[in-house]
Amino acid sequence: MSAMKKVALGMAAALITSTAVMSTAVASEARSEKHAKQATELRQSVFKLLASNIGPMGAMARGKMPMDKAVVEKNATRINQLSMMITDYMATDTRKFKVNTEALASNWTKPELLNEKANALTMASANLMKVVKSGDAKAIKKAIGGIGRTCGGCHDDFKQD
Prior knowledge:
Elements: H1 3-20, E1 28-29, H2 33-61, H3 69-83, H4 86-89, E2 92-93, H5 106-109, H6 111-132, H7 137-158
Parallel strand pairs: 1-2
Helix pairs in contact: 2-3, 2-7, 3-6, 6-7
């Protein structure tokens, strides 16, 4: 095995290991209404970015857009990176302030579950990053579905309908 291949494999193993051991961010209360509003806007930004990357892949998986493996690979990488930010951006408890949010109290009362759900998205996106390299459209669609299921499962527990 070439030295370059060994380095690449080592980096891939490190990425998978690091995603599997994400830490649970400890929630702290917002200090002011301004702080609560800013924290809310930042966390909503993360979720908007997630949606903007998931949407096209969902359309591809349902056959509403042509499968574009380069887009899938790029979006899966972005989702993976964003998924590791979720618990950090959910760490400010904004419940005591009037902010425009669909976040449920469980975001701050069930941090272990939030971490578990965020980690599931990290792992699902890492899986898609691997599967897309195979070029197998059926496997790619299935892996995209795995991301969709992790998102929906998180919405069930942490977002108002």
